[in-house]
Design goal:
The protein is an alpha/beta fold. It folds into two domains: about 160 residues, Alpha/beta knot (3-Layer(aba) Sandwich); about 60 residues, no CATH class. Strands 3-2-1-6-4-7-5 form a seven-stranded parallel sheet. Strand 1, helix 1 and strand 2 form a beta-alpha-beta unit. The N and C termini lie far apart (about 70 Å). About 25% of the residues are buried.
């Protein structure tokens, strides 16, 4: 699978993801995959409708086997959160109460701080159709709500978990500008290489009558050079561009590279004419 590398370090830490009465095994599997993408590994299920384990969940998890294998099932939400020090509950609906409501960014930072302090934390996610009940919300310490379109605020279960997992992953990065890989270093083109490109392109165009009328040739060349210097080419890119010009200069659509020379073909008379001599 693209992006999966068993030889690299597997990150598996952070808050428990707790699904309350999840309905479909496929959704549980996609949640496991989202967790694995962003370094979470502890999945807890409260009374999954279709039971556990689930072949559909395993299939949908797309190789997030370590999450699936460690999944725990509980008969009540109280039991699922009993060993945790701090719990967030996610909600898409307005909840008017006394619990603090946080954005995913702030919630993830709080979870990271508590994780580093050695606390056990968790995030509650409700049923696919109806979310969490008020009684279930009461078991959480604070709420998390997502900045979504107010006229279309419903997220599917895996999407909601993915968003929180992503924010969690970000809090563990040294810089938000970090990337998993970067472009290979390349040497910037030298001025003589650029000049060679200019001369090559100009000669090829001039030979084909591009610079017409002649009075406009200086301005056309100026515009051409401006266009070719704007991208800050590397040395290898200059070579590629000159190779393109050389190919266009030497070959045509009717006689592409690898076919007999168009000059030889063009200059040879038909065999019947030669036989008449």
């Amino acid at each position: 699978m693209a992006g999966t590398n068993s030889e690299r370090q597997l990150i598996a830490e952070g808050p428990a993801i707790i699904l309350v009465h999840p309905q479909l095994g496929e959704n549980i599997g996609m949640v496991a995959r989202a967790m694995a993408n962003f370094g979470l590994a502890e999945l807890r299920l409260v009374n999954p409708r279709d039971g556990w384990p689930s072949e559909k969940a395993i299939s949908a998890a797309s190789k997030a086997d370590h999450v699936i294998a460690a999944t725990k099932v509980y008969s009540s939400l109280e039991a699922a959160v009993a060993d945790l020090n701090f719990v967030y509950a996610t909600t898409a609906r307005d909840r008017y109460g006394y619990k603090e409501v946080r954005s995913p960014v702030v919630a993830a930072e709080t979870l990271r701080t508590r994780f580093r302090a050695g606390e056990a934390t968790g995030i509650l996610f409700g049923r696919e159709r109806t979310g969490l009940t008020n009684e279930e919300i009461a078991l959480a310490d604070e709420l998390v709500t997502f900045p979504v379109n107010p006229a279309f605020a419903s997220l599917n279960l895996a999407q909601a978990v993915l968003l929180m997992s992503y924010e969690w992953m970000k809090t563990g990065m040294g810089s938000l500008e970090e990337t998993a890989f970067s472009a290979l270093p390349q040497r910037p083109a030298k001025k003589d290489e650029l000049q060679g490109l200019f001369d090559h392109v100009e000669e090829a165009l001039d030979a084909r009558g591009y610079f017409r009328p002649a009075a406009k040739k200086p301005k056309l060349i100026e515009n051409l050079r401006s266009a070719l210097t704007r991208p800050s080419f590397t040395g290898s890119e200059i070579q590629v561009l000159r190779g393109i010009v050389s190919c266009l200069d030497r070959f045509t659509r009717d006689a592409p590279r690898g076919t007999p020379s168009p000059n030889r073909t063009r200059n040879r008379r038909p065999k019947a004419e030669r036989d008449d001599e």
